[in-house]
Each structure stands twice: as C-alpha cells, then as structure tokens.
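Q: Convert this sequence to structure tokens.
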Amino acid sequence: MGEEPVLIKLTRDQAFVLSDWLYEVMMESDKLDAIVPDRAVWSAIYAISRPLETTLPEVFMPDYAGRLAQARQRLLDAMGGDEGADQSLSRPLSGDEISG
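A:
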C-alpha cells in the first residue's frame, strides 16, 4: 500500500509558481528546515520538485521573472486575492480547484 503512487494535477501556472517557491526554500536558503522540520516529509517535497524542474520549459526561458509574475497574478486573480493581501488562502478550495 505504501508504494502505490498518488497523482497530483496542477495547472501550468500552479506548477510554475510552486516550482519557483520550492527552489527558493530548497536551494536558495535554509528555509526548508524551518518550514518542514520533519525530514521524512522532504522525500515527498523532492519527489514533487524534480518533475517540475524537468518538465516546465518556463524555468529555462530568459523572461523567467516576467512569466512568473504573470502566472502569480493569474493565480491570485483566480483566487480573488491580490498581491498586497496575506498569501494564505482566503477560502478553502474545492476538490476541482485543488486538482487543477
């Protein structure tokens, strides 16, 4: 039972923003230790991070920052939030929204 894979679906914007965030907390800082002190969880984080890094062409494009900003804004707009608001979710997402 423990080795049966679980499918997670994300929109391209969700995947791009998540990939950037994961890179920041995993590679550019010591934040992962603070955010996720349980190192057993790191296995799942790395399992999510690897395919994002290798399947998103946006991460290699010269206009990365602009594309990321646009993706973030589209996601915030879809959630009914804005850049100045608390970045936590203002409402629970439905199953359809979570699976993208």
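The chain has a mean pLDDT of 81.
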